[in-house]
Amino acid sequence: MPKNRHTSPSPSELRDMTPSGAGWLPHGYHLDPHSHAQGQLVYAAAGALATTTERGTWVAPANRMTWTPPEFIHSHRFYGRTDVRLLTIPVDLCGQLVERPSVFAVSPLLREAVLALTDRPEVRPGAYARLLAVVIDELTYSPEQSLHLPEPRDDRLRTVTDLLHADPARPTTLAELGRAAGASERTLSRLFHRELGMSFHRWRTTLRIHHALAHLTDGMSVTDTAIACGWSNPSSFIDAFSGVVGQTPGRYQADGQHGTR
């Protein structure tokens, strides 16, 4: 993995990365499913990224960081021109973090430690290990903010989620989707709660927020993003986005544009 963060790494460089690395990736850059023997932290200092495993998709805008434990098969997709920072976590340290893929809030201290680890070479023996210990400590206390979109195993539920993935803005009701899936609205509602741990409305809202993050990161206006993702007006979109992401779409877009040093 190149140390110069103004270069674009190849897929093989991303897969076979050294303990730290950085690079600029274009909008839509995709890394096919793979796994690592060690843990991996990925931070988008600008832009956004999505990490997908068999358990679903986790999205991390520029104020969050993804965590993938060892041996989890996963893929990445990057949105907007992304300043990506990657850290390998040795197996003996992974036990201090959660045992499942997740996304964490990035505190100012955590951000600066990650930038230092990926911006400059180690000039004093042990400096890298000390900074990495700071990262682990910060993650231990950082709240999980997963923006997790789980995926179903039930065929009827998968039919519904596939239709929504194909067109997140479609206003179709659960009853109408049920006719395509061969299941009643009540059955599907029960499956959403049992398999995915959330309501149909929450799942679809999270899906739309995932798409909204991608559109905003790529420079689409707030109003156009709201329409493209299925909201009837910008106000309702801003309320939903703020409730999930923790900041307004406009603030998120501004922070992403000015997130790098």
Description:
- This protein is an alpha+beta fold and 261 residues long.
- It has two domains: 11-148, Regulatory protein AraC (Jelly Rolls), CATH 2.60.120.280; 151-257, Arc Repressor Mutant, subunit A (Orthogonal Bundle).
- The chain has helices at residues 11-15, 91-94, 108-119, 127-141, 155-166, 174-181, 185-196, 200-217, 222-228, 234-245, 249-257, and strands at 20-25, 30-34, 39-53, 56-60, 64-68, 74-89, 102-105, 148-149.
- A hairpin with a 2-residue loop joins strand 3 and strand 4 (56-60).
- Helix 6 (174-181) crosses helix 7 and helix 8 crosses helix 10.
- The two termini are 20 Å apart.
- The model is unreliable at 1-8 and 11-19 (pLDDT under 50).
